Amino acid sequence: MVSRSFFAIDSEALVVTSSTNPDILDSNIINASDTPDGTRFVFQGGFGSQLVTLEDTGGDPDVFEDDDGENHVITDGAGLVEDGTQVESESVILIQAVDADGNLTGPVIQLIVFSQNGVTQDVWGFSTTAPLEPGVTYEKVGDDIIGDSIYTDFVPCFAAGTLIRTPHGLRPVEDIALGDPVWTRGDPRARVTWTGATTVAATGAFAPIVFAPGTLGNTRELVLSPEHRVAIDGAQAELMFGEETVLVAAKHLLGAPGVSRREGGTITYCHIMFDRHRILDAEGAPCESFYPGDMAMTAVDKAARAELIALFPELATGPDSYGPLAAACLKRREAAVLRLG
Question: Which H helix or E strand runs over 333?
Fold first, then answer.
């Protein structure tokens, strides 16, 4: 069985204000089939994204990429849906914002609608491909009644623009390509074996973690995805954990001086991978390379996953076959005792 996490918003956040289907007026968002084109919604304030986890009881990771309602069981509903509920990626509703003159404006946004217990109209939540603005009216402009959704999770990675140390000087992470040499501990010319990128709304738990200059020895701001791990070296790691180096997820350092979460807009996260898990230099701070563990492999899309398995056939038997982490990884409670700077 395989678990996957994704971000969802309560169905109560989108209320129908006008529609040619009178049965849905003043109701929460419902499935695409019962929502005619032209239906308008208002996005209510006070609703944030919640991280929800489900399990594929069918045992095939690819089943996450269809609207199968029998093999998806919620294991952590985050208050949006009861644990143990069978859920389905019911449909996709395409919307656009409506301006003050009643005209459509801005990009088309996908709403991925989630139903429960085999009842297509019983929608408990939805996800979006872009942030929605509280108080703004949105209009349905199309749909796809086949769910066909890829539930997503965090991919540990660097924000675009992060400067990575290479044998030829500092380079933005997004400019590093397959085969390029990068400085890493133990190999100052390690060759990159895979790169990827993910653009998401920088809101809620997707918002990046920002390390102010000097926090980790970094010369500029270091911006990481919440799950990206940084390396802590020296006497502190040795004294507290008996290790020369430990890895800590960026999100576990929130609250330490110089560490904050930045929300707003969108952000592109970039990841680079080597023949094995390595520690590299990002903005002068020691950080991990991409590690294809369970979370990361389910987070990348199907095409990226297929590419990774083509490059590393052993991954088809499980992420553990890639090899060990470059250092011991701390849990949140352990990370709380660390002092940065």
Answer: helix 332-335
What pLDDT digit, counting tens, does each position of 38-69 carry?
999 999 977 766 767 777 666 555 445 555 55
Q: What are phi and psi of 207, to 5 degrees?
A: -65, 140
C-alpha 106 chain-centroid distance: 23
Quickly tell me which residue has 């700077």 as its tokens.
341
Please state, for a pLDDT cut of 70, what percent of the chain lies above it: 79
CB–CB of 282/164 below 8 Å? yes
Among 149, 129, 293, which Cα is nearest to 227's? Answer: 293
Bridging pattern class, strands 328-329 and 245-249: parallel
Tell me which DSSP letter residue 62 carries: G
pLDDT digits (tens, 9 = 90+) for 203-247: 776 789 999 999 999 999 999 988 899 998 877 667 677 788 889
Would you mind telling me the total number of residues written for the chain in this entry? 341
Q: Which of 239, 58, 34, 250 is nearest to 154 (CA)?
A: 250
Instruction: Give the separation between CA 4 and CA 151, rounded to whole angstroms.
Output: 7
- The CA–CA distances, whole Å, from 293 to 139, 177, 276, 308, 318 equal 39, 22, 12, 12, 8
Structure tokens at 245: 């180096």
User: For position 305, what pLDDT does the model report?
Assistant: 58
Distance CA 260, CA 305 (A): 31
Per-position DSSP letters for 229-252, written without gaps between them: EEEEESHHHHHHHS-SEEEEEGGG
Query: From CA 111, how far away is CA 124, in angstroms rounded?
Result: 13
Instruction: Report residue 167 CA to chain centroid gap.
Output: 31
Task: Give the pTM.
Answer: 0.56
pLDDT at 302: 56
What is the residue-averaged pLDDT of the chain? 82
DSSP-derived secondary structure for 246-300: EEEEGGGGTTSTTEEE--SSEEEEEEEE-SS--EEEETTEEEE-----HHHHHHS
